Every structure is written in C-alpha cells, then in structure tokens.
Amino acid sequence: MKSKKQTTKTAFGDHPIREKVAEISELPRDAVLGMPLLTVLGQSEFTLENYTGIIEYTDALLRIQVKGGQIKVTGKRFQVVYYANDEMKVKGCIHSIEYLSSEAR
User: Fold this and answer.
1) N or C: which terminal CB in the chain sees fewer CB atoms within 10 Å?
2) Is the pLDDT of residue 104 over 90?
3) Which residues contact 8 (CB under 8 A, 6 or more apart)?
4) Options 2.120.10.30, 3.40.50.800, 2.60.40.2000, 3.10.250.10; which CATH number does 34-105 get?
C-alpha cells in the first residue's frame, strides 16, 4: 500500500512541495524550482541563470551543468562576459543550443 506522501510525489513530480508552492504562490517556477532560465539575444549573446557549473569552455563550445542535465552551446568566438554563482552572460556567434537531459545520458 502506498503512503499518501508517495502518491503526492508521483502526482507532482520530483519536487512535490516546491511544485505546489510555485502553483499556489504564483512565483516564477524557475526561481522556486531552481530550473535554468536561458535568455538569448539573436545569435550574438545569451544569459543563463540557475546553472550549477561549467563543464567545458572553449571559443567554440560551452557545456554547462544545470538541474536535470546540461546545456550545450556551439558557435565561435565565445567570450564569457561575466559569471557568478548562478548566472552567466556569454557573447559570440551562436550556431546551436541543445539541452541534454540527465535521463537520456
């Protein structure tokens, strides 16, 4: 017999309490759940919030660890304008942005 907690967890995903708080409070889901927020300006720059680490960084490739997987950005002439504990801004010529789920790897 499943407990009520397990049933609730299944109904609301991996973070049932946070999901419910986001739903009830109408707070931004990215803030409550710690999910990545990627803002892209054309092909020339992007800002990423809520990342957990930089895995690989060259002038043509960025692999960034986020909750639930990785974000892979390819292009050329990448320059990190700034980065902090949970936010970064990168300029360069963006060719592609790909989300790699931790479930798929």
Assistant:
1) N
2) no
3) 16
4) 2.60.40.2000
**Considering only CA atoms, which of 45, 41, 40 is closest in space to residue 92?**
45
pLDDT over 90 at 19, yes or no: no
Which has more confidence, 27 or 47? 47
Helix then strand then coil, in percent of the chain rounded to 5, is 25, 50, 25
Which residue matches tokens 């909750």? 67
- Region of 34 on the Ramachandran plot (φ > 0 left; ψ -120 to 50 alpha; else beta): left
pLDDT at 43 over 80: yes
Look at residues 11, 25, 13 and name the one whose alpha carbon lies nearest to residue 67: 13
Which among 62, 54, 15 is positioned nearest to 35, based on CA atoms? 15
